[in-house]
Design goal:
Strand order of the largest sheet: 1-2-3
Order of helices and strands: EEEEEE
Radius of gyration: 38 Å
Structural class: little secondary structure
Distance between the termini: 127 Å
Amino acid sequence: VHGIDIGALTGTAATNETAIQIGSGWDAELSFLDTAQADVRILNSSSIAFQDASGNEMLSLEDVGNTVNHVITIDSDTGLSFDSSADSDTDITTVAGEDLRVEPGGAGDLSLIVDADSAIDVSADAAPEIDMISITNTGQAATTEGVNAVFIDFSATGTSTAALFVRSSFVGGATDGLSYAGISVYDINPTNAAGTDSVYGIDVTSITDPGSNISSAGIRINTGYDTNLLFADTSTVIDVVSGGSITFRDTVNSLMVLTDNGSDGVLTIDHLSTAAAAVNLYDVAVNKTVDIAGVTNDAADTVNIATNATSGDTIAIGNTAGGTNVTLTAGGTI
């Protein structure tokens, strides 16, 4: 039963054919008074298009053969514009319990573009019970060099900022032994069939430092921590490149330098320039033995104490306490 039935147009058509045309002045060009649900139907596997006066498609709904799979084609400039009554309103959602999935076709990208006063905001409206953001390629391992899970290219001019800024808080509870980390690199499981590859928990690459106008540090640890650097490994190893050195400074002066000398190390302690400066070896009130050169391992060692004749040195060995013994032993001349 059809209230209005308009048959097919046949024969030679004019430039623009319209089955029903509604003029201006109406409050509503179409009004459905069905109190339950108003239906607009098309043939199975066909489409319906909304066009402007020139015939350009603004929105196309395409049926692909069943009731749960449809294609929406929108204008190429601004496809969808949402004007909700409040920022807290939901613009796009799904039936309860269903995922909201966005997947570009072919080689297309998913681009989220913000202007100067806009941001991409991921907020929780309840206490999270799963990861708020998850990036995974399980079963689709990358095979192209330089392809990363997350790539950030961020620059700044004339301001203090960061490419990645993490602000967090932690409140402990009745359970002890909890741990919290601002950034956690966890559960790396590398394998390699042959040869040698390199795996790093954190890799800080080179910086091109222009000189005195820039003060740079690969990693900076600020104040407030009980321990600034904690090695939880019982056999910690710190490597430098062959022929390299590790320098301890007070940000200006070199205090101590440990230099690789092939298969051994050279330790240089600098800047003992005041009367308060000193080198203290085991200067604590406990009984101890201090070994210097060739004590437990035999070699032709040379131990020099104040041998440069440029100033009057004071050399003190032993003390005046009773029971103090000083022994000088030599197989040659003393």
